[in-house]
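To whoever is on call:

I kicked off a structure prediction for a single chain this morning and the downstream step that reads the tokens threw a length-mismatch warning. I double-checked the sequence; it's 150 residues and nothing unusual in it as far as I can see. Pasting both halves so you can look.
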Amino acid sequence: MASEIPDQLSSPAPPSLHPKHIAIPLRLTPHTTLHIQLTQLETSNLIFLTTTDPSNSNALSALGSFVYAMPNRLNPSESISTPLHSVPHSIDFATRVAKILARKTGKPTYVGCSVNLGIGVMVEEEIEAVKKSVEGVMEEISGGVNGVKE
């Protein structure tokens, strides 16, 4: 007699193909808004990050960097990541966010990032943007409301 397929494999939950959009103003970077697009899939999260400000409101954002990160099963306090597409001005930001979210969610995470905080950005401004990115995604995953939904 053939073995039976477990119920969970025969009818997997469908992924959410409707991305959630979040807009969060950055307090330390005047007139700059962080935009997050979150798509929660069954086995991973897909996140795109970009910023807008009045000086380039009509300009299109470049693709930026694209990073894959996954939780480290041997050392849960660390995540493993690899850049899939690297652009110098956004690779560090994308890697940081991807690693943090992979660790916090326990799921592989893809992060596309074209965040541009401007020339001469201070460390505090970048830390705030990373923190707001992670908080916005985690709050949305847990069902809360953060920033302005579009």
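Update from on-call: the warning came from a stale cache, not from the record. Cleared it. Sanity check on the structure: The radius of gyration is 17 Å.
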